[in-house]
């Protein structure tokens, strides 16, 4: 097994080889393609013919084992429609900034599928997540293998400098854990650390607006004492959980729309702009307002939350 730095020629060649392997049986029936891809995956694992970058991203593992079930949710369960994928650069760095909701952060996974499957270059999306994600058994290692890392300025700048697509959800747990009565109303965007990272690296900011996640687990309550006892940011109560037990964990099949807005350039700002509080605040507010207005428009376009 060889390590590879994201964005390097070696990493791009490895990605090309993997894509070719996964499409060798492209004309075969679905089950045959699945078996062929799994056999090829096992062969690569046994021979060590795969790469893991400095952040723990294992593209072979992610595309072979993690993407298929998420793709089923994307295509069949949520019936996600994307708009503006052409606004995501064909190459080079960009910072995608999205609203966050849904009680469980399924929206981040669906955004990653959208970029990978709908983008002409099938680019991976490197998501910045909370410490809680990476400290959780099973979930943390899987998140690393999927290419994600901590929501800190240092990691964001390092990925952007390497030419990666990076995603951030500035509302954090305030957005994911907000009550259903506050659906599609953006929470505070933190202190603008994502804007500083974009300004320092000159990466464009792509506003991303996601409609559909608010309805998958409508949050109608939060059992705070239980959340504190379990070390969780909140313990959700929904119309189906915990009343239905494990069945309550099945997300409702809402209709989703994801729009990638026009990029906001950051390379024209003067040197030192990342340290100017007013520049950071104004740019943060511009991104937030763009996403909020787009959400209102997409809600009108979608119509019924489940029938579309």
Please provide a written account of the structure.
The strands form three sheets. This protein has a seven-stranded mixed sheet, with helices on both faces. A two-stranded parallel ribbon has the order 1-2. A two-stranded antiparallel sheet has the order 9-10. Helix 3 crosses helix 4 (106-118). It has helices spanning 9-22, 30-47, 59-77, 106-118, 131-135, 139-145, 153-161, 172-176, 193-201, 224-230, 277-302, and strands at 2-3, 51-52, 81-83, 94-98, 125-129, 149-150, 165-168, 205-211, 221-222, 236-237, 257-260. 43% of the residues lie in helices and 12% in strands. It has eleven helices and eleven strands. The radius of gyration is 20 Å and the shape is globular. With 308 residues, the protein is an alpha/beta fold. It has two domains: 1-69, no CATH class; 81-216 and 251-302, Glycerol-3-phosphate (1)-acyltransferase (3-Layer(aba) Sandwich), CATH 3.40.1130.10.
Spell out the key features of this protein:
disordered N terminus, 308 residues, Glycerol-3-phosphate (1)-acyltransferase, 11 helices, 11 strands, two-stranded parallel ribbon, 12% strand, 7-stranded mixed beta sheet, 43% helix, alpha/beta
CATH homology superfamily of the largest domain? Glycerol-3-phosphate (1)-acyltransferase
Kindly report the spatial arrangement of strands forming the biggest sheet: 3-11-8-4-7-5-6
Task: Using the alpha-carbon principal axes, give the shape.
Answer: globular
CATH topology name of the largest domain = Glycerol-3-phosphate (1)-acyltransferase
Q: In the CATH hierarchy, what is the architecture of the largest domain at level 2?
A: 3-Layer(aba) Sandwich
Structural class: alpha/beta
Q: Output the radius of gyration.
A: 20 Å
- Strand percentage lies at 5-15%
* N-to-C SSE string, H for helix and E for strand: EHHEHEEHEHHEHEHHEEHEEH
SS field, number of helical segments: 11
Low-confidence regions: 1-17
Distance between the termini: 46 Å
């Amino acid at each position: 097994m060889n390590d590879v730095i994201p964005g390097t020629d070696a990493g791009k060649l490895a990605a090309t080889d993997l894509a070719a392997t996964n499409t060798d049986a492209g004309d075969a029936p679905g089950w045959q393609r699945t078996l062929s891809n799994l056999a090829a995956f096992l062969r690569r694992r046994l021979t060590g013919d795969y790469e893991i970058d400095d952040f723990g991203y294992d593209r072979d593992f992610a595309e072979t084992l993690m993407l298929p079930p998420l793709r089923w949710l994307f295509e069949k369960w949520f019936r996600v429609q994307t708009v503006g994928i052409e606004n995501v650069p064909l190459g080079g760095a960009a910072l995608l900034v999205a609203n966050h909701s849904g009680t469980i952060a399924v929206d981040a996974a669906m955004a990653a599928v959208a970029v990978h499957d709908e983008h002409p270059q099938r680019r991976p999306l490197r998501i910045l997540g909370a410490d809680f994600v990476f400290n959780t058994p099973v979930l943390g290692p899987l998140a690393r293998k999927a290419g994600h890392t901590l929501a800190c300025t240092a990691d964001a700048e390092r990925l952007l400098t390497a030419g990666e697509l990076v995603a951030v959800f500035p509302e954090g747990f305030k957005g994911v854990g907000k009550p259903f009565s506050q659906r599609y109303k953006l929470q505070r965007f933190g202190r603008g650390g994502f804007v500083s990272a974009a300004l320092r690296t000159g990466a464009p900011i792509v506003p991303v607006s996601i409609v559909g996640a608010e309805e998958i687990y409508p949050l109608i309550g939060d059992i705070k004492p239980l959340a504190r006892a379990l070390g969780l940011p909140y313990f959700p109560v929904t119309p189906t959980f915990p009343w239905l037990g494990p069945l309550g964990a099945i997300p409702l099949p809402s209709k989703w729309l994801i729009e990638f807005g026009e990029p906001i350039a950051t390379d024209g700002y003067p040197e030192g702009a990342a340290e100017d509080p007013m520049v950071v605040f104004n740019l943060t507010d511009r991104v937030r307002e763009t996403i909020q207005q787009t959400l209102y428009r997409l809600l009108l376009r979608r119509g019924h939350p489940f029938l579309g």
